[in-house]
Amino acid sequence: MKEIVDIISAYHSAVKENRKTALATVVKVEGSSYRRAGARMLVTDDGMLTGAISGGCLEGDALRKALSAIHQGENKLVTYDTTDEDDAKFGVQLGCNGIVHILFEPIFSDDQFNPIELLKAANSKRENCVFVTLFSLEDKTQPGSVMLFREDSILERNIPEIAGSIKNDAFDVLKLKLSRIETYSIEGKNYDALIEFIPPPIQLIIAGAGNDAQPLVSMANILGWEITVIDGRQTHCTLQRFPSAKSILVAKPKEILANIEIDRQTAFVLMTHNYNYDIELLNILLETNVPYIGTLGPKKKLLRMLDELGKSDEIAKVNGPVGLDIGAETAEEIAVSIIAEIKAVFSGASSKMLKEKTQSIHSYE
Questions:
Q1: Quick one: which of 41, 219, 198, 52 has its CA closest to 123?
Q2: For residue range 71-116, what is the model confidence (pLDDT) as tens digits?
Q3: In whole angstroms, what is the distance from residue 262 CA to residue 277 CA?
Q4: Which residue spans within the chain are E strands per DSSP?
């Protein structure tokens, strides 16, 4: 979601400067590539790039293709084949042993359903949504971004022949939380649709405004997570100390849930270094459906808290000590450990070394 937020911001800046723009989207990958389907990059007519569609190897040629789409005012699909030696002639040299299909869409600000408006709608709520991009590997006609789907609302372009089928498939993607590509027929021609599941960003609630929370906030901000810092101390819990936090809350444990809306992308990390504060908040959180609770400190501290609360049988609900075992010592290293664990939990990943993984890195390859 951070990439989407950055693209929206860059687009608004470009509009203010009367710059023309195009959106490049990876719509399909065959084999391996640095970025997967759904990766995006905004290109302005003065050559500014926001987002990424590769590790840097495609961006140069993609800039030229985007400027061409802007100049001609029409969507274009470009295929980069790493097995084709001609790609090396253009300086692409992907080295990923895959085929990458990228759709370039010029953005027209007076179009209420242009790709940026659909992305803004995706970012407008903390709700899961599905973004549909329609393209053709056989025909020059490229419909592009056509639908933003939620259970209670739909924004869509006029695609009556297949709209019903796309909505049904979008609902399945929303339910399964797994993106996929489907093929549809329009007037006898086949079109592929990237039906992309987009969850809201992780909402990280950090209970504790000590110095060791500062690198955790900074790193979570880099990932685009929405961060709230909570503490009972007014002297510590300030925006000056945590400028990248979305919100700052000075509160007692019993006051917190009245100010926080928990959803399926919410993580709490308890690191106040105040035993009474932590145990009171832990007791409250164990009565909720929050999907992630992490506690800083030794295991015996967590066991003691659960024992005092009479909830020793709920230890499986708590990640304590919080973080992955990476040999962390400093506050910055501990922050890396915590961030990595939370990311792995919400991604459903094993968090083991990639060299030990026998399947593809990405589960949907």
A1: 198
A2: 999 999 999 886 655 555 444 455 566 789 999 999 999 999 999 9
A3: 19
A4: 21-31, 40-44, 49-51, 76-81, 98-107, 129-135, 144-150, 153-156, 180-186, 189-198, 203-207, 226-231, 247-250, 266-270, 292-295
